[in-house]
Write a structure and sequence with these properties.
alpha/beta; Dehydroquinate synthase-like, alpha domain; 2 domains; seven-stranded mixed β-sheet; 11 helices
Length: 285
């Protein structure tokens, strides 16, 4: 297992990367001393795949827990959905030291983090990203948000998790489309920060698409380290450095919004945003 620390003083936390580490969820969380009552936000498919493993590990380590399901769609990131979950969380949290587990992709992570940030003015939460895109990008850095009809991620907060548990074995359940979507974010990191990573992607593309464990762990670790270092220097986008992580996202978010989140997924939209930037940059003055 690889460990990467996001160094933010009292808000510091570890990103844990490895095969099968989801089975140690309870043990990992026990060491954080954040409570014994877990409110787990996920979707139906992820619960069917990994709910039993999470539940077993939590039970073995003395945790009480409740699963809350949302639809597997960007449209789940709404104020209405957040309101419903907060009401259920309030009922569950009575006389408990509660924390949230975000078990899923970017939608689950963004929504769960947003709820954690505003419930009782902030409660702990854990990210367990289940997509490549979430493991390399959205689960790290503390950006939480919900969408409005007027645009994506317009209501949110900077709120860091207590840990990120990236089990790369989980990625075996992804479709090829989801893998390619995640690789779009990895390519973004390579373009903005790491020439060696770009060469690595070119040489190992087939192995990455086939989810060879050593290759996948490498790109998740390198991408996580790049993002951690940028977030450490500009946690809340105050110096402008963190804005580099939005490469491809300005046009990408516009594409997602214009298509009503029904046609392109996030990674595909970011890839189109990168291509649009490249074409603009190559145009003669």
């Amino acid at each position: 297992m690889k460990t990467i620390k996001v160094k933010l003083g009292k808000r510091s936390y570890n990103i844990l990367i490895g095969q099968g580490i989801i089975n140690n969820t309870g043990k990992i969380i026990s060491k954080l001393n954040i409570g014994k009552d877990a409110f787990i936000i996920t979707n139906k498919q992820i619960k069917q795949l990994y709910g039993d493993s999470i539940a077993k590990s939590l039970k073995e380590n003395g945790f009480n827990f409740r699963f809350e399901l949302i639809a597997d769609s960007e449209k789940s990131k709404s104020l209405e959905n957040a309101h419903r979950l907060i009401k259920n969380l309030a009922l569950f949290a009575r006389k408990k030291k509660v924390f949230i587990i975000a078990l899923g992709g970017g939608v689950v992570g963004d929504l769960s983090g947003f709820i954690a940030a505003i419930f009782k003015r902030g409660i702990p939460y854990i990210q367990i990203p289940t997509t490549l895109l979430a493991q390399v990008d959205s689960a790290i850095g503390g950006k939480t948000a919900v969408d409005l009809n007027e645009g994506k991620n317009l209501v949110g907060a900077f709120y860091q998790p207590k840990a990120v548990i990236s089990d790369t074995k989980i990625l075996n359940s992804l479709t090829m489309r989801q893998i390619r979507s995640g690789l779009a974010e990895v390519i973004k990191y390579a373009i903005i920060k790491d020439k060696k990573m770009f060469s690595y992607l070119e040489k190992n593309l087939t192995s990455l698409l086939n989810l060879k464990p050593s290759n996948i762990e490498h790109i998740v670790a390198v991408s996580s380290k790049i993002k951690a270092e940028i977030v450490e220097k500009d946690e809340k986008e105050e110096s402008g450095l963190r804005a580099i992580l939005n490469f491809g996202h300005t046009i990408g978010h516009a594409i997602e919004t214009a298509s009503n989140y029904n046609y392109y997924n996030h990674g595909e939209a970011v890839a189109l945003g990168i291509l649009a930037f490249q074409q603009k940059s190559s145009m003669p003055n």
